[in-house]
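Thread: Newbie trying to understand structure tokens

Hi all, I'm a second-year student working on a class project, and my supervisor (Dr. K.) asked me to get a predicted structure for one chain before our next meeting. I've only ever worked with sequences, so writing a 3D structure as a token string is new to me. If someone could post the tokens and maybe explain what I'm looking at, I'd be very grateful. Here's the chain:
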Amino acid sequence: MIIKTYSTIIGLTIALMLPPGGARAEQPGIRDAFAEAVAKIGRGSMAEREQGIAALAESGHPRSPDILQALLDGRLYLEKASGRPVIAEKNNGRYRIEEASNGADLGLAEAEAIGRINVTSRLRGELRKLIGRLRLGSEDASARLAAIGAMMKDADQDALDLLQKHRAAETDERVKQAIALIFLVRDLDSDDKAARLKAIQALKDYDSQAVVNKLNAMLEADGEGGYAEADADIRSEAKTTLRSIEARIHFYRSIETVFFGLSLGAVLVLAAIGLAITFGVMGVINMAHGELMMLGAYTTYVIQQLLPDSLGLSIFLAIPAAFLISALAGLAIERGLIRFLYGRPLETLLATFGVSLILQQGVRSIFSPLNRSVATPEWMSGSWQINDFLSLTWNRFYILIFCLLVFAALLQILKRTRLGLEVRAVAQNRRMAKAMGIPTGRVDAMTFALGSGIAGVAGVALSQITNVGPNLGQAYIVDSFMVVVFGGVGNLFGTLVAGFSLGIANKFLEPYAGAVLAKILVLVFIILFIQKRPRGLFPQKGRAAEA
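---
Reply by user tm_fold:
Sure, no problem. This is what the structure looks like when written as tokens:
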């Protein structure tokens, strides 16, 4: 194969010996070879494309790894009008394209204006190895680490020779460990028993899925009672190493479950905290609370449509906008309906349920019944890959942080502002507060608006983990009430503790009972709990509690 023929040369010369990228790109010979190779990838048949790939890798141009990576990822296209290869990214039904050869932004293009450059499965495998070898010369240790990870899946002798030469010059400890891992895995296939035993013992400290797969393969039994690994000593050592790694896997999974429980808890807290204010302080069962969250989520969607090229900025703008819109909607509901129904909880419940249906239908009429997708900014995408068995998603991590910031801000409002003082006074003793000159009607309206605004902010967070649709709020209204009741009606700290507790409990139960049964078990637990503590974990003295 042409690519294989060039691989050793490429690895030894380009990755380790060539001058800095900017200077390389300006050399006429490299520039011409690069331009010819890029053009050949775009225009040629599959055989010519293979030659173009090899020539591109050999050119030593700093853009070569990016173009090959785009080709591997299916992001390398041919612009039909000009015939030049471009790298394209989807952008709200269109494609943002850049010139492959120099990265120049060419703006947006319709799907019909470009055609994807395809490669065969065999070429994909070769591309992975080629990219790994090219990136091995990167100044960025993370890029080198990723390159070694790509090479590990199918490291041939050329790759091992290259890694052996690179090993001595490598300065980053993580990269050294990754290279050592590749050689230890290779030693598992050695003919020398002592070398195999030594490799198995050394692999005990590595958190690698490749090691687990390899050891499991050695311990597999065949149909005749034998094992893939014939040597009993090696099997015994492999079992010991595997048990050690599996113990750590169990630990990592526990960490991951706690993280996902906390992130679920953060969503529950965000959804319930506004309800805790209106339900706890005013004693109003607001069945439209979920729809106020939905309004916040749709606000995020609308702002993102207005700023399609600034996803990060749109999220930050959506937070105050969602708060404002949901707060105004809540204020209208309180002034137009709820204030006439104070003291009549059943009628309030039915009236707010009717409002929720009206809001849902209103959204269906404006945006259609179909769910809308809200794009996630790049800095919230992906995950923090700690090792092969533990990764934490960035969007849920940021929602957890966001939840704590919203909670802290709300606490400051209630403890350090005049509105907060009045809210606390009315919650503790309405008649006494009124006798002291506090306008309880205005406090009720502002409290309801505050709780509704926080529901809107919760909608912004929800838009980053699920699709936005008319029924978005319905999925969280029951859970929100459960959190408020479990934590203690009207107690914000209780809501925080209850939200995180129920989130973690749900995630630990789900693997054993399934998502639905886990939720049922949590509900049963709360019912039994409030039989013993009717006022929740942290009871709050207030109008609702006194009732």
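A couple of things are worth pointing out once you decode it. The longest helix spans residues 232-282. The chain has a mean pLDDT of 84. Feel free to ask follow-ups in this thread.
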